[in-house]
Structures are given as structure tokens and as C-alpha cells.
């Protein structure tokens, strides 16, 4: 299986750095949820890369969550995830259009907004 370089990798790396800042620590205190984000290079459900955004501990990891059950799971195509993370696409619009799929708690999912991502200064 070929490893594809996703644009989402850069955003997740920035997210890791962001969570170590004071603003990131505020997010963890405010939200306190664990999200699983599945990003597919081209088609949902195929060759997905799984990221865990743990807003309880304030960390971002690649791979399955080891700490039990995640609060909500999102599935995106790489390009759509980048649009949502950079604020170019509203998460509700992405969901309505089918660009984002959600499993788990909808109340937890509603706290997943572009505000949790670092501002796109480097994108």
C-alpha cells in the first residue's frame, strides 16, 4: 500500500504545536473531548489515515485511540479537511454536502469548530 502525503499532515503538525501553547491549553480546558479524524486521500473510506485530536490531554497522534472510546469521529477527504480546518468551509455545510461524515456524540461534534485549529498563517 502506497503512503500518500496528505495536506492534512501539515495541519496536524501545526495543531500539535498549537496545543502546547497557552491558547491550546485553554482549548483543552474548555472542550475536554477526544476526536478521531479519518482523512482519505481521494475517496471516503479508502486508504484513510487516522488522527486522534485529544483535547483532554492536549495532544495530536496518528493511529487508533488507545484510551477507550472517542467522543466523536469525523471522516473527510484530504482537500475537504483542509478547507474546514482553515475556515474556508463551514463544518455544518461540509456535513450537509456529505464532505464530512460524523459518528458518535453530536453534541461533542458541535464543539469541533475551526476555532480549535491554529490560525492559517503558514498555509
Automatic annotation (TrEMBL):
Any idea where the SCP2 domain is? 18-113
Signal peptide annotation: none
Output the InterPro entries linked to this UniProt entry.
SCP2_sterol-bd_dom, SCP2_sterol-bd_dom_sf
Which named protein is this? SCP2 domain-containing protein
From which organism does this entry originate?
Answer: Eruca vesicaria subsp. sativa
Gene3D superfamilies on file: SCP2 sterol-binding domain
SUPFAM superfamilies linked? SCP-like
Amino acid at each position: 500500500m502506497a503512503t500518500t502525503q496528505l495536506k492534512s499532515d501539515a495541519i496536524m503538525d501545526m495543531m500539535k504545536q498549537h496545543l502546547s501553547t497557552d491558547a491550546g491549553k485553554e482549548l483543552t480546558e474548555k472542550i475536554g473531548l477526544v476526536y478521531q479524524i479519518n482523512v482519505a486521500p481521494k475517496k471516503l473510506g479508502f486508504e484513510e489515515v487516522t488522527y486522534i485530536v485529544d483535547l483532554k490531554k492536549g495532544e495530536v497522534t496518528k493511529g487508533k485511540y488507545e484510551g477507550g472510546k472517542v467522543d466523536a469521529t469525523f471522516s473527510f477527504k484530504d482537500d475537504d479537511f483542509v478547507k474546514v480546518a482553515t475556515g474556508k468551509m463551514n463544518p455544518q455545510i461540509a456535513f450537509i454536502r456529505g464532505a464530512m461524515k460524523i459518528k458518535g456524540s453530536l453534541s461533542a461534534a458541535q464543539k469541533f469548530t475551526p476555532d480549535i485549529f491554529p490560525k492559517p498563517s503558514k498555509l
